[in-house]
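Lab notebook, bench 4. The sequencing result for the construct came back, and we need a structural model before the next group meeting so we can plan mutations. Quick request posted to the team channel:

Model the 3D structure of this chain.
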Amino acid sequence: MDQFDWSGVPGALPTFGAGALVTLEIALVAIAAGIAWGTLLALLRLSPVKPLRAFAQAYVACFRAVPLVMVLLWFFLIVPHVLQRLFGLSPDADIRLASAMIAFSLFEAAYYSEIVRAGIQAVPVGQAKASLALGMSAWQAMRFVVLPQAWRAMVPLLLTQAIVLFQDTSLVYVIGLADFFRTATNVGDRDGTLIEMVLFAGGCYFVVCTIASGLVASLQTKVVK
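Done. Here's the predicted structure in token form:
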């Protein structure tokens, strides 16, 4: 390790912090929006209404069949034009962050929907039937009886997918967004320490994801008990 020059890391920490904030913003928005939209998609896939069920199935199949990098590029090229027409934004407006958030949210929703659907289907059918027998509507049974039980079992899987999402945020480099990883490479290119900065960024991702994985495993043990 003596041949590596780590002297530039302390001075670059404020810059790394700004990049980490971008990464965190993308991850949190995508997790929240992805779970919300994914839950709705899961309910649509279980709907007795055929057109709604077909839409949800097609949505999930489409996004799960396309690489995330391609989705990011599509939204980077499409979203600016849509927002410019809807809100009259200047062509020079930088909306790369918004594009990344939308792309990640819609992409991750396809994966979250499968987790939610599996969780709902894991709840014994008798629970819903008993709720209906007590006078609840189908929506009330789903909201107050089925979903609470399903969420308890789904939380570890949802958090595991969130860790994967956090790792995938590094792919925003393809649209030139200065997230944590892109910031590391920029600093490395500037100071001639690209290898060191990439290794440092990789180490940070490893530490964060290892700690998060440990917390998820601990939570999963408690849920099982």
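The longest helix spans residues 8-45.
Will bring this to the meeting.
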